[in-house]
Structure formats: C-alpha cells, structure tokens
Q: What sequence folds into this?
C-alpha cells in the first residue's frame, strides 16, 4: 500500500471546533464549591460497642443524604474530660471529616439536639483537610 | 561547670559612634515568634501538646508579652484553645 496523492494528506484543512461546544464543557467541569467541615461528637460512657457503631452510621447517613461526601472518620476512643460536662466524667469521641453544603450541618445539629445519648458536638469549617496527622492515635503495645 | 566558649562578642571598633537614635542595634532585644516561621508546630484544637504550653497552671491563657507570640498567631491560639475547652480536651 502506498499513497499516490501526498498532497491529499498534508493539505487537509484543519478540523474546526465549534466554540459553543467547549464553552459548555467548561461550565460542566466547574462544580459547585464544596466546603470542608470537621465534625466531632461525644457519646455517653455507658454505651456498648454496638450502640456506638449504630450512632456513627446514623450520622454518616445524614451527611450522605444531604449531598455530602465523607472523606475520613476517626475514633478517638474513651477519654476523660478536663471538667465535668452535664455530670459526666468520661465519653467516647468520634471525628468525621467531610465535604458538603451548610444544609448537612443544619441537619446534623437538629439530630444532635433530639438525641439523649450525645453529650456535646462541634463543627468547624476548614480551608483544607489535614489527612496526615492524627493527634489521638492509639499506641499499640 | 564550664563556661560557654562561643558567646557573642561586642563589636571591635568601640570608637564607632551612633549616628542617630533610630539606628538598629547589633544585639537582639526581642525573641522571635515561636509559632511562625519554619518548623513551627501546627496550631489546631486537636493538638493539645502545643496548646498546653501557652496555658498557666490554673488553665488561663498566657499574654503574648510573656510568650512573645505574634499578634496574628495569638488570635488563632485563643480560638483553638476555646474550641478545645468546649470539647473537654484541656
């Protein structure tokens, strides 16, 4: 096989792209700006492992329902408080890092207020998630 | 106890007179901020080890004139200490 007319290959007109097609692509790739949040909550001391894991999965589903995306979950375990909180001395700590809207945070706080098993909770907005450091890592002996 | 050998010497030309009041002195009078610059620890409400350095024995926040923390970092420090207090970490 050899090509007779070389000019037919090299002198082809360059492909023309329609401008409107690419303009739409740029808009599609621009996602809605998602905020980064860190959420911690404390449950009561006298809960078993089964109840604690239920509570974690319950609040993870609330985030997922409200168009949130969970990045990391940490369990800090049983820790003693510096001061007594609502007549409790110890509690289980849970930490969730997620991206999402403010609507997810609202729903979380609503659910926390109703729940009796939860002592306290805190949500913090951060610019960027710090995935390297875990300050409350358990040391295996 | 041995004395340290490498202490800072005074400038050799002692006859040098100061030209003006606002001339910078050779010796440093102020410490630099320990929380800014290279190899500075991470300021966060989870990092309790760092936060405990800047508290008194009774748990109050130390003023920046004693610890020589810069103004911008002192604002961050108070914010992170108050978050840690809310969770009962400190």
A:
């Amino acid at each position: 096989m050899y090509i007779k007319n070389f000019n037919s290959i090299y002198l082809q007109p360059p492909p023309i792209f329609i401008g409107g097609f690419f303009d739409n692509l740029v808009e599609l790739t621009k996602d809605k700006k998602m905020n980064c949040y860190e959420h911690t909550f404390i449950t009561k001391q006298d809960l078993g492992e089964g109840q604690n894991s239920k509570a974690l999965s319950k609040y993870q589903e609330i985030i997922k329902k409200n168009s949130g995306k969970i990045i990391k979950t940490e369990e800090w375990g049983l820790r003693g408080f510096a001061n007594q909180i609502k007549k409790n001395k110890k509690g289980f700590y849970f930490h969730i890092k997620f991206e999402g809207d403010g609507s997810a945070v609202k729903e979380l706080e609503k659910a926390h207020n109703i729940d009796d098993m939860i002592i306290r909770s805190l949500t913090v907005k951060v610019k960027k998630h710090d995935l390297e450091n875990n300050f409350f890592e358990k040391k295996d002996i | 106890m041995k004395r340290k050998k490498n202490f800072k010497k005074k400038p050799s030309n002692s006859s040098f007179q100061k030209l003006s009041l606002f001339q910078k002195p050779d010796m440093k009078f102020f410490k630099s901020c320990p929380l800014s610059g290279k190899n500075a620890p991470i300021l966060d409400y989870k990092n309790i080890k760092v936060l405990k350095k800047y508290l008194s024995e009774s748990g109050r926040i130390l003023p920046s004139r004693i610890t020589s923390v810069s103004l911008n970092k002192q604002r961050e420090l108070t914010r992170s200490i108050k978050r840690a207090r809310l969770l009962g970490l400190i």
